[in-house]
Amino acid sequence: MNRPADGPRPTRIAALVLAWLVVLLIDAVAVAGLARLEFGHGLDRVFQDGSERYGDYAALVEAFGSGDGVLIRVGAEDLAATGPRAALEAFVIEMHLVDPDWTVISPFSIPLADGAGGVTTLNMLDGEAWAGAQAAHPMLAHVLTPDHEAALVTVLGAAGEDQIAAIRALAGEHLEAAGLEVGLSGLPVILDRSRALLMRDFVFLNAVGAAIGVGLTLLVMNSVWLAAISLMSTATALLWAMGAMGWTGMQINVISIALPVLVLALALSDAVHVALEQRALALGGAPHSVARALRRIGPAVLLTSLTTALAFASLGISDSPLLADLGAAGAVAVMVAAFGGLAAQGLIVQTLLGLMPPARIFPPHRRGIPAFFDWQALARFGLAAPRAISAATMIVALVATGLYLTAPPRFSLDENLRDQDPARTVLRRIEADFGPMAAMQIPVEIGPDGPLHTARAVIAALPEELAPDVVSLSALADAAEAASVPLDALATQLPPPMRAMLTGSEAGRLLVSVPFTYVDAARTRALATTLEAHIAAAAPPDLAARIGRPTGPHVMSAFLSETMIRSLSLSLLLAVLASGAVIALWRRSLTLGLVALVPNVLPVALAGAAMAISGHGVTFAAGVALTLAFGISVDDTIHVLNRLRLAGRDPAHARDPLASAMRQVTPALVATTVILAGGLSGTFGATLPTVVAFGMFTIFVLLVALVSDLLVLPAMLRRFAR
Predict the structure, then answer these.
(1) Backbone angles phi, psi at 119, to 5 degrees
(2) What is the mean pLDDT of residues 138-160?
(3) N or C terminus: which one in the chain shows less Cβ crowding within 10 Å?
(4) Residue 312 in contact with residue 629, Cβ under 8 Å?
(5) Are 16 and 5 a contacting pair, CB within 8 Å?
(6) Are 201 and 687 in contact (CB under 8 A)?
(7) Cα separation of 530 and 524, whole Å?
(8) Residue 247 pLDDT exceeds 80
(9) DSSP for 463-502, written as a single string
């Protein structure tokens, strides 16, 4: 057992002081990096790539603007009445004055014939004239209900948190103060809402993860000092990792939100492995137990961090900058945390050994967590029936993998919000009042006959069921013709963005917008594909050559999400192959590398099979979770193989090194899995469904991997790796 020197030598004290100064210096650098971390929903970058679909969308935005506006539903018994009409008009006027880059579209934006050959707007008419105006101009149906109980105000160019807050403030001042009902939605609001909930979940997840981690560590260690050492080293590891994320420019978003708690749980798991080994050596009377524990367990800890880092790095093959950034930052964070945790743990223990007796730091182990199950029985059963368990496992793994491969990708732009979130409920009310808010936007080069003829030719090539709801120059022309007013007189009164969309941009293109009810990416892809095929078949060749593919945020994300989610399967495959290669090189055995993969592929395959059977499909959260969970689950396998390596060198375990290794390693595997699952359990209380899904799949894989490593791994090692 380690014994403190009667009087610490000056050189030893100087070395400790120097080491602490280095650690504190790195801490200061990490704190500076931590201050650089930013929050964002992340969806504005997830689809940026070099694909044709994204190119179509980028060209659309460049020519016509994003078209993603803040949708404001205003409700009243009768908006045509004097009071509500005045409040609505005051709100719209104020909105025009807030920001010169905003474009406000409202019932007052639609140009109307005044009956005398001129042009007017609703705000110039009294309430009694509204009904007649609405009957004469079909475009008003998109912004005002026939009963005048609801109006729609759209603000283009407002997308930031401060801008949305300003809109809410003005709505409260002018509309809610007048007794009108107000609700905000639209893609900018949905994304801003996601960002706000993200910040709440980030604080919640880390607070809950830290609290559960502390509690479980105290139970596992059954020693305040050992628990404190593990927690302090974990805190150092997390600080260094988060600081590295900040310096790399990593953004906390809906995809990376669980990364800090993952790093925390992994660092704590590593610290527990090392601390338990230190205690075992110290109680056994081994000299220099701290250094020996680091030599015995340290390589395994670094290897487990390497396999997890490789799982993160595998995300880098994605064309999405967001996933690639997560992969790079996660890999760096995991490796930095591993080195930081080991360095801090060794330094803290060495310092304490100079201040107090070793027996106080390493008290005898007492059972902390009640044994509700004899985990050792799994290993004993696996060793007793290696052939049957190995065969059954490989059959189940193959079937589950096959089912996993059939699971379709699933994505929705609003999947980060719960179904009853205000932004979603308001959007449903808006669509009930004014029709679908999502649109497939078809850019068309204006032909020699002019924009009106071009628009009508495109509409004629659309499926009959979609044509009546199309927003185009044709609807404005019909209104002008019905009122005997020149089309140009109405068009010039439109807000510039609307005018560019309807009559043509500087590039000589106009938009034909086909509204549709957005459900998810799969249905959007099907509708867009059908629409493209129908246009190609129905449009004359000269017109078809000028019609671009349907695009817009909903269409673009529908196609690219499928590609990117499927790329996560390739990331998982690379993580599997890389982990197998690392283990094979470490143990200099291809057989061990292959055998080590099976117990860890099994839980991932089972999770994927469950997605396929349930019809849930593979989401971004699930795809990332399975890839990272695999990288983490391999950790237990590495610790088993490391313990087997050590047992093989010890004559005391020469009779059956594998059985001895399983007896020694099982308590640590159970303890660290409990800590990992406990630290991630806070995800179940998150407000973002994607975070809940991430935690659910990760915990499932970790728990099944524990059972697999205790049951399947020893069976396969006995069967194939003698």
Answers:
(1) -125, 140
(2) 87
(3) C
(4) no
(5) no
(6) yes
(7) 10
(8) yes
(9) -TTTGGG-BSHHHHHHHHHHTT--HHHHHTTS-HHHHHHH
Q: Give the count of beta carbons closer than 10 Å to the beta carbon of residue 497.
A: 18
Distance CA 463, CA 516 (A): 13
CA distance 712 to 481: 77
One-letter amino acid at 422 equals P
Task: State the Cα torsion 647-652-657-660 to the nearest 10°.
Answer: -90
Number of Cβ atoms within 10 Å of the Cβ of 254: 27
Per residue in 295-315, pLDDT (tens digit) is: 888 888 888 889 888 888 888
Q: Is the pLDDT of residue 151 over 90?
A: yes
Q: Dig out the tokens for 332 from the structure.
A: 């760096």
* DSSP summary character for residue 115: S
Asked whether 546 and 447 are in contact (CB, 8 A), the reply is yes
Could you please report the per-residue DSSP string of 279-296? Answer: HHHHHTT-TTHHHHHHHH
Tell me how far apart the terminal alpha carbons of the chain are, to the nearest angstrom: 35
Distance CA 599, CA 701 (A): 11
User: How far, in Å, are 91, 217, 293, 668 from residue 706 at the CA level?
Assistant: 60, 18, 23, 11
607, 677 contact by CB (below 8 A) = no
Helices 82-98 and 161-174, axial angle in degrees (round to 10): 150
Helix (H) or strand (E) holding 251: strand 251-252
Phi, psi dihedrals of residue 248, rounded to the nearest 5°? -80, -5
Enter the DSSP assignment of 142. G
Counting every residue written for the chain, the total comes to: 722
Distance CA 476, CA 504 (A): 14
Q: Give the separation between CA 398 and CA 601, rounded to whole angstroms.
A: 10
Q: What is the DSSP string of 673-691?
A: HHHHHHHHGGGGG-SSHHH
**Of 66, 106, 70, which is closest to residue 85 (Cα–Cα)?**
106
**Burial class for 561, CB neighbours closer than 10 Å (0-12, 13-18, 19+):** buried
Q: Which domains does the chain have, with CATH numbers?
A: 10-44+192-364+376-413+558-720 (1.20.1640.10), 69-185+422-517 (no CATH)
Structure tokens, 361: 């730091």
DSSP structure class, residue 144: B
Phi, psi (degrees; rounded to nearest 5) at 383: -70, -25
Distance, CA of 215 to CA of 234 (rounded, Å): 14
- d(Cα 705, Cα 391) in Å, to the nearest integer? 17
Rounded distance between C-alpha atoms, residue 465 and residue 469, angstroms: 9
Residue 5: pLDDT band with limits 50, 70, 90: very low
Quote the CA–CA distance of 296 and 301 in Å, as a whole number: 10
With 0-12 / 13-18 / 19 or more C-beta atoms within 10 angstroms meaning exposed / middle / buried, residue 403 is: middle
Which amino acid does the sequence have at 654?
A: A
CB 667 within 8 A of CB 639: no
pLDDT in tens, 189-201: 988 888 888 888 8
> Which pLDDT score, from 0 to 100, does residue 2 have?
46
CA-CA distance, 92 to 153, in Å (whole number)? 8
